[in-house]
Amino acid sequence: MKIATVTLNPAIDQTVSVDNFQAGIVNRSRAMRFDAGGKGVNVASFLADYGMDVLVTGFLGEENTDIFERHFARKKIEDHFIRVPGETRVNIKIMDEHNQETTDLNTSGQTPGEYAVNRLTEQVEVLAEACEWIVLSGNLPPGLSSNFYADLIQSIKKKNRSIVLDTSGEALREGLEAGPCMIKPNMDELSQLTGKELKELTEVHSAARSLLNDDLQLVVVSMGADGALLVKKDEALIAVPPAVTLKSTVGAGDAMVAGLVAGLAKELALAGCARLATAFSISAITRLGRDLPAIAEIESYRKQVVITPFEIEQS
Fold this sequence. Notes:
- By secondary structure, the protein is of the alpha/beta class.
- The chain is built from ten helices and 15 strands.
- The chain has one domain (2-314): UDP-N-acetylmuramoyl-L-alanine:D-glutamate ligase (3-Layer(aba) Sandwich).
- Strand 7 and strand 8 (101-105) form a beta hairpin.
- The longest helix has 17 residues, at 114-130.
């Protein structure tokens, strides 16, 4: 089974390790690294490490493609990115392991030209012929309208493919109307999407369930250290990870999306998907970079995930 991820606004992630980081003073870094990043790139990386057949597309600045090309070659990821003039943006992640905090300094990225946008649209249609799952991840680059994901979804649905949408704001709102089969908002994104302040778990469940329809079959709400709430029409459960030492939060949500897609592609039950997705996420936050550990370690994490059914009548 082939899976494609679409990353319209990728980034090179520059991670700087600083203990007890403070703004406004000189901080001394312990280490620094550069990684090929962007939400869809991260999802593809984790899926490839798990042995899935993955293809990627989106926009890459032609002046600094080397880090991405080396990354895709190492992971055996099939590269269908559209090269555009200029450089891919660089995002800075200040990782304070001592305080278990990550500070992000993200840039907006560059505007792709009309020719590149048209090529990307055609590329996605081609990939949808070959791939059973299409993952649309990340924010839109400048210059693309908020309905861009919605248009892609409508095109992909003609191929009868499964579509995952992981974005935020108006792009999520409009994309949702086009009918993906799964979304993974965090608490803030779900609150913005439903226009309701969400405090209690029953409110979160009710908000997630209100989004379900014939197209949208699964809403996964990521809740940080509290785990995730997975909601289907006739089933809901909470997946809580074991306590671990946090190294970085970068890519944790993308790892969860990858685990969910891997589980769904393998036709696991909802609890099995929840365990695998949580194990992927744990793997991401306990290490730097975009590499999953050995399968045995993932299995160890998977067994430690606590699954609790959420009774529908509670809402």
